[in-house]
Design a protein that fits this description.
451 residues, 2 domains, 23% strand, alpha+beta, FAD/NAD(P)-binding domain, 26% helix
Length: 451
């Protein structure tokens, strides 16, 4: 009998290792910011993270860029809250560089410094922190989500809580609860970043070098970019693309990690070929590949690309954004960008940009878009569960814009505050007073724009 068809029958007694008001699964900035906002409003909070630090893509995947907190015309501030607080912490250590009026980046930071700042802010708020801890399964009793089973070096245990936030990135908790989830037809491929020293010795256009040699070295056509880490000569290079691998499937994720590292090495081989005198040296690889998209949760409202691009205002809006729609394609090389002013650009390395419009020109354009609370409330989910992060309900176009960290940070904060209101009022997540949610977010420093 093959191992795949055999079953091990075991009986495991799972001790309750912690009890709290709120348990957050996932310690990205999304999950951590949810935990912090809830703790500030009086909840006892536990947070479970499989890696050894907070920050998610910003730290473990080494993507050291946060985008603009201003509207598309750089006039009004549309994002506040913990994103601003963390930037200010980094500024005190000269660990962040600011870029003015740039659609692609606003803050370039040192990911290693960010790790310690996030540790400190979590400890300041009394969070019960579980690093190196894997979520295993939900525990449902009497039809209610009562606890989550986790496992770490100390063994298996259960965390019992009154409310839960799934900030796992891949909707692990929601999926294992049996809630409706889905994948985009062409989810955005993942990228393995790398930290490189000696970048100034590469005396050639690195994007052109990659394009001209990609096929020979097995590099998929993609979008290469990077940023120098503040206070150093280390360059964070994001130039790989791992298509077809589904990050929510274990074998695919394993293959993606290996392929991403292979591509990084191939890039170094390309650079050695085109610029033999370079002194590039690989300094670090991420502890986890940078995932843009995987599983989504079906929620009370799916945010549509048309709603986003036309700047639709929502009465339950809990986040604002101005980052362009940015789609890394699975089914063809290059990226498509769509802007709120109606422009559309398809960029493919080695080819002229294809300029066009997704809508005709108008006298006025929206300057930001919004994310509604309903898009993070699972349809037919337990009363005490919210989802926060890249798995919220959004179509392929909307996801291309909202997926970036400054947007998801706000979603996390909203989830934390909503958990507080649900518990205080004794109501289901879907039934909270969203006007009160928006007012409480504003009181805590978030930018909530009146409708």
């Amino acid at each position: 009998m093959s191992s795949s068809s055999s079953v091990l029958k075991e009986q495991i007694q799972t001790p309750v290792i912690h009890e709290c008001d709120l348990c957050v699964i996932g310690g990205s900035c999304t999950g951590l910011f949810a935990a912090i906002r809830a703790a500030r409003l009086g909840l006892s909070v536990a947070i479970v993270e499989m890696q050894n630090c907070f920050g998610g893509v910003a730290t473990s995947s080494m993507v050291n860029i946060w985008h603009s907190l201003l509207d598309a015309e750089y006039r009004d501030t549309i994002i506040g809250g913990l994103t601003v607080e963390v930037v200010e912490r980094l500024q005190r250590r000269e660990a962040v560089r600011t870029i003015e009026k740039n659609h692609g980046a606003a803050f370039i930071f040192n990911s290693e410094e960010l790790k310690t700042d996030l540790d400190e802010i979590a400890q300041e708020h009394g969070l019960k922190i579980y690093f190196h801890t894997q979520f295993v399964a939900p525990w449902v009793e009497d039809g209610k989500l009562q606890a989550v089973v986790v496992e770490n070096k100390s063994g298996r245990g259960a965390i019992r809580a009154r409310f839960f936030i799934d900030a796992s990135g891949d909707a692990d908790l929601a999926h294992r609860l049996g809630l409706e989830t889905y994948f985009a037809n062409h989810w955005q491929p993942a990228t393995t970043c790398a930290k490189v020293s000696g970048w100034s010795t590469l005396t050639t256009n690195f994007q052109r070098a990659i394009y001209e040699n990609a096929e020979a070295f097995g590099i998929p056509e993609g979008f290469a970019w990077g940023a120098t880490v503040p206070g150093s000569d280390i360059f964070m290079m994001a130039a790989t693309r791992v298509p077809k691998a589904n990050p929510a499937i274990a074998d695919d994720l394993t293959a993606a990690e290996i392929e991403g590292r292979r591509q990084v090495r191939a890039l170094f081989d390309i650079f050695k070929k085109v610029c033999p005198e370079n002194q590039l040296a690989l300094q670090a690889l991420p502890s986890r590949i940078g995932v843009r998209e995987s599983r989504h949760v079906r929620c009370l409202h799916q945010l549509k690309g048309e709603e986003l691009l036309y700047g639709r205002r929502f009465p339950d809006a809990i986040a604002n954004g101005s980052y362009r729609v940015d789609i890394h394609h699975q089914d063809k090389p290059g990226n498509t960008f769509k802007f709120l002013d109606g422009r559309e650009v398809y960029e493919r390395p080695g080819f002229p940009n294809q300029q066009g419009r997704w809508r005709p020109e108008t006298a006025e354009n929206p300057t930001f878009y919004q994310i509604p609370y309903r898009s993070m409330v699972p349809k037919d989910g337990p009363d005490n569960l919210l989802v926060a992060g890249r798995m919220i309900d959004a179509d392929e176009t909307a996801h291309g814009a909202i997926r970036v960290m400054v947007n998801m940070n706000q979603v996390g904060e909203a989830a934390g505050v909503a958990a507080v209101l649900a518990l205080k009022d004794g109501v289901a997540a879907r039934a909270i007073d969203t006007d009160r949610l928006r007012n409480t977010l504003t009181d805590g420093g978030s930018v909530i724009i009146p409708n």
